[in-house]
Amino acid sequence: MVYEEEKVFEEAVIKQLIECGWESKVLRYPTEEQLIKNWADILFNNNRHQDILNECPLTDGEMQQILEQITQLRTPVRLNDFINGRSVSIKRDNPDDKAHFGKEVSLKIYDRKEIAYGESRYQIVQQPQFKTGLRLNDRRGDLTLMINGMPVIHVELKKSGIPVSNAYHQIEKYAHEGVFTGLFSLVQVFVAMEPEETVYFANPGPDGTFNKAFYFHWADFDNEPINNWEEVVKRLLNIPMAHTLIGFYTIPDDKDDTLKVMRSYQYYAATGIADKVTNKDWSDTNILGGHIWHTTGSGKTLTSFKSAQLIASAHDAEKVIFLVDRKALGKQSFDDYNAFASVGEEIQDTADTDILVSKLKSDSPADTLIVTSIQKLSGVTRDAEGVKAADIDKIVAKRIVIIIDEAHRSTFGEMLSNIKNTFVHSILFGFTGTPIQDVNKKKDNTTASVFGDELHRYTLADGIRDKNVLGFDPYMVLTYSDDDLRQQVAFMKAKASSVEGVIGNKKKEAIYFKFMDPTQVKMVGEQHGKKYIKGIEDYVPKSQYDNEAHREAVLTDIIKHWPTLSRGGLFHAIFATCSIPEAVKYYRLLKTMAPELRITAVFDPNIDNEGGGSLEKEDGIVEILDDYEVVFGPSFTIPSYDEFREDVQLRLAHKKPYNRVSKDKCQRRNFFDPKRRSEMTHIAGYMSASHSTAGMSTGGTV
């Protein structure tokens, strides 16, 4: 249906909202004062019993106390904790309440688990009046949705033919004018809607900035965007969905000091896991819960945390264990989960196996969410030294959920088997961006055979289409010309070093001219049915690129194009190498060739299985740490290498304390990471080793 007038569209949306669970009595054209009075009435009705308000209504002064708390909290991140904290304290100043006058009482304001029943109220506000700063006219919004009297979702509408960008630009304009302050600073989610397109996004607050990269379209389970407005209301703004959106699917990220809202694919994954746990038969020994295939960079850590939070909130399990496969990832995951946790919600770290066992035995609700490594948990077995059989009995009797945030190939080994054999009544889930399937199975195992069936899928193609992850823009740079490479391969196969050494020898001539003929041997190999026909690149030895001339050619190209590709230093860059020794060589060479660039290198200091001596690697690490201190300030040592790696990650991702650093102070840099080779294979896998690639980012994503 075409809506030629915005007013008609607005009434249609209101009608649909009412059909989807919102109250039929619409609050039309109210002032902020009238909405505060409405909130006071709801608070009174929900807290009127003798132990709290003693049948004495809230006074203007008591409501002012609440508003002052809102003003002090100020940002959506802190206000999310305020809303989901369930209660707010005031000092009673109503003289009619003789039992509590002058005393502090705690008022229930919202319960994210009390959905569509009990004391929850769902009100539609049509065209609320917004106050603006001096010299500006007051504004009227389109629709504000209130839960228990608190404005938590604001909707701006546009008629047919007007792009949705006009609606979200209006929201941005209102925010700039100071509209979303006072009571309206409680708004958590914005919705911009026209009949054929809708986007939703979290409120960035007065200190944040609106970023269109985080304006999302809601989609169905198969990740097909939902554009029709009626379907958006039915699926996203219905009750109970709107209630859970505010209570569970908005995330106050303390690390970024940013409010986040989940994308649809994260919602389907989190609820899929939570539903599996709800229906788990804990006497069953089938440990496989399922796996989530969500592409790298799509927010798997946040999704896994929300899955755990849903499980813990519903009391469907006594323990939820986040399992990581490396110490550095454990620290990173613990920090991430801690940042996502709500006020009063604790995430338990485990420094050693003894602490892990104590947390697993504990009956305290504070010990529900645990972060540990696969190495530590695999050591909690009946035959492990220092672990009591009675402790194991108590632990395995609990309802335990195990979530592996990154289900890499390293989880396909003996350690995971030990965990499965010990925690026989638990349920296991895995998140992966690169699932192991039948075509590339490892030791006859696939992701499905190790973790269970796929519960949800969000592929790289989905992420690129939705602009939730960066697309690839590969280009080839030849460090050797194709003609030179072809001739060197021809010489090598003919066992000659020059044309003169070939001519006159019939056998060498046949070999040499075969490889010099592009119709007989192509540059790139080809698959013909089950047979692979090699190309020139397949014959090029690794040594062809392990030399100074090649490295200089690679870096010359990077330096030449750096000002343009980095947009004058706006972007970071990641340069992936095939080994740690090669990373050190490139690092030293780039220091010489481009001393003006701020660079560093990151790799695992404890692993050296790619060639090169440990002493050479140790010398390289010391040099890198010395340079880092000179350029950036912080001082690290080999024993504190994990802290160095974390500092690099925080700088690259612009997270605290580097989250609001201006361009001239942020000390942008590129860095080398040989461990990222596997993550870059989608780019480099179709290219000869004679080509270089660059990945750049303003926020830490290749």
UniProtKB/TrEMBL annotation:
Please give one Pfam family short name: SWI2_SNF2
Question: Tell me, what is one Gene Ontology molecular-function annotation carried by this entry?
Answer: DNA binding
- Annotated protein name in UniProt: type I site-specific deoxyribonuclease
Alphabetical GO biological process terms: DNA restriction-modification system
> Per the database record, which ranges form the Helicase ATP-binding domain?
258-461
Top-rank EC class of the record's enzyme: hydrolase
Print the keywords alphabetically.
Answer: ATP-binding, DNA-binding, Endonuclease, Hydrolase, Nuclease, Nucleotide-binding, Restriction system
Q: Which InterPro entries match?
A: Helicase_ATP-bd, HsdR_RecA-like_helicase_dom_2, P-loop_NTPase, Restrct_endonuc_type1_HsdR_N, SWI2_SNF2, Type-I_R_enzyme_R_subunit
User: Could you tell me which SMART domains the record lists for this protein?
Assistant: DEXDc (SM00487)
Q: What Gene3D superfamilies has UniProt attached to this entry? A: 3.90.1570.50, P-loop containing nucleotide triphosphate hydrolases
Please give the catalytic activity noted in the UniProt record.
Endonucleolytic cleavage of DNA to give random double-stranded fragments with terminal 5'-phosphates, ATP is simultaneously hydrolyzed
Q: What is its EC number?
A: 3.1.21.3
- This chain's source organism reads Caproicibacter fermentans
**What family name appears in the similarity comment?**
Belongs to the HsdR family.
